[in-house]
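Subgroup meeting minutes
Present: P.N., E.W., G.H.
Scribe: E.W.

1. P.N. recapped why we're keeping a running log of single-chain structure predictions: easier to compare across weeks, and new members can see raw inputs and outputs side by side.
2. G.H. added today's entry (99 aa).
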Amino acid sequence: MNITDVRVFPVAEDKLKAYVTITLDHCFVIRDLKVIHGASGLFIAMPAKKRKDGTYKDIAHPLNADTRSEMERIILHEYEKQTANGHSLHNVLMAAEAD
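Output recorded in log:
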């Protein structure tokens, strides 16, 4: 499995830094991953659904630590690349609307 596309949609919030959409092997899309700024730095949160009891359950997630680490490395690299290039929130939102 390879991540063949990463789309980063920065947001102007305190801890939530961006929403991310990834494509696997040019044929499977996962939306609503999140870049979160936590106590130990940036990390990726998987898409989750709120349950009736108020807890959250991941909808999609890696099955092992190596896969999670590789996904985080690729996604955070793209996030840092886009934010370093000065992509404004307005430009990213315009691209998201065109999607």
